[in-house]
Design brief:
- By secondary structure, this protein is an alpha+beta fold.
- Helices cover 20% and strands 40% of the residues.
- It folds into two domains: 47 residues, no CATH class; 262 residues, no CATH class.
- β7 and β8 form a beta hairpin.
- The radius of gyration is 29 Å and the shape is flat.
């Protein structure tokens, strides 16, 4: 079945959006923030919306079948790193975007909960590759041969899955409260074999216990729902500007893939509760009067729990050097780059020798 929108753009059930000029499959273009035909160059704008009406009831997640990714999607699984990628049904994956492996198989697993929001790509493929070249050439300890002969695997635009959680919390707590007080004490000290009396003010702590109730609402606790990208690499390209979150539309996915979440909704909320607990403890310690406040026990009820599934953009690839694979990523919104690269043993050795020579010369100068 085929349908037409107001601009007579052909939309297939597989969600590949046809060009009204030549009939080719259009792709999302980060530079124009719209659809562009790679064959004839025809451009079509995407009407971005920011309704953000996507808060879903956490306790009803198992019954929210209407929120499943009901577009025709296929899930590809990597036999090497375990990543699961969600692509349109007409797309064939011949390698894993996260590790470069060719051990890719189609699974019968459903794509799961459809995202409600995403940040569209704002960095193009060409810009991402240019940023990588600039990045690798800027690392002094990378081998010179790498900067001239590296072989870059195909770079892929991938949306990483995240959960966000809201919750009203109500906590009962018991705290130990310490207040400072000072006493005058006299003690004996010995100097050069002679004893003398020293009088001084000594700080003491008077402890008591208190209990009470504490309420706090948490909004949009962000939890990464992916294990495929090395956390240290991802941390270096953050933050994403979440104020740019846009209502999910299939047009933004055209030409890109989305990783299927590997952290379940329940697992994500467990991580979110850890973050909320730290916030609750900090809030209690600030609200109780005392020089020292220590939470001894805490019991929290979580109510009105809602969640969102959102997608954040990265360019990801790897490069080969001396039969080893190194991964790198580019923030698809800001262009920040992070990655692993080999170190030149010769450069490191030369630097160490140079430092030792400088230290030796300084030692001779001081000694003379």
């Amino acid at each position: 079945m085929t349908s037409f929108d107001e601009q007579n753009t052909v939309v297939e059930d597989t969600q590949n959006i046809k060009c009204p000029s030549c009939g080719g499959n259009t792709e999302y273009d980060p530079e124009t923030l719209g659809l562009k035909c790679p064959f004839c160059g025809h451009e079509m704008p995407i009407e971005a919306t920011f309704d953000h009406h996507v808060e879903l009831d956490f306790n009803e997640a198992g019954n929210n079948l209407q929120h499943l990714w009901n577009e025709e999607k296929r899930v590809f699984s990597c036999g090497n790193c375990g990543a699961e990628s969600v692509l349109d049904a007409h797309v064939v994956a011949d390698f894993c975007s996260f590790c470069g492996s060719s051990h890719i198989t189609v699974t019968d697993q459903d794509a799961g909960i459809q995202p409600g929001l995403l940040i569209p790509f704002q960095v193009s493929n060409e810009q991402a590759q240019a940023k990588f070249k600039e990045w690798i050439k800027g690392h002094f300890f990378a081998p010179n041969t790498l900067k001239k002969t590296y072989r870059l695997n195909k770079i892929s635009g991938a949306y990483l899955p995240y959960w966000t959680y809201d919750s009203q919390t109500s906590s009962q707590y018991v705290v130990r409260v310490g207040n400072y007080y000072y006493v005058t004490e006299t003690r004996t000290v010995y100097e050069d074999g002679k004893a003398r009396q020293v009088t001084e003010q000594v700080r003491k702590i008077r402890w008591h216990q208190e209990s009470g109730n504490y309420r706090e609402f948490f909004d949009d606790i962000l939890i990464k729902a992916s294990h495929t990208v090395e956390p240290k690499l991802l941390q270096k390209v953050q933050p994403f500007q979440l104020t740019s979150l846009t209502d999910y539309k299939v047009e933004y996915m055209s030409g890109f893939l989305a990783e299927r979440y590997s952290v379940s909704l329940q697992q994500g909320f467990s991580e979110a509760k850890d973050i909320m607990t730290r916030g609750i403890v900090n809030g209690i310690e600030r609200s109780v009067a005392g020089d020292i406040v220590e939470v001894a026990s805490l019991s929290t009820d979580y109510k009105d729990i809602t969640y969102k599934h959102i997608l954040l953009p990265i360019w990801i690839s790897s490069f080969h050097f001396k039969e080893k694979i190194y991964q790198f990523i580019v923030n698809g919104q800001t262009g920040k780059v992070s990655g692993n690269y080999p170190l030149s043993v010769m450069k490191i050795t030369s630097l160490v020798i140079s430092i030792l020579i400088v230290i030796f010369i300084v030692y001779l100068f001081i000694d003379s």
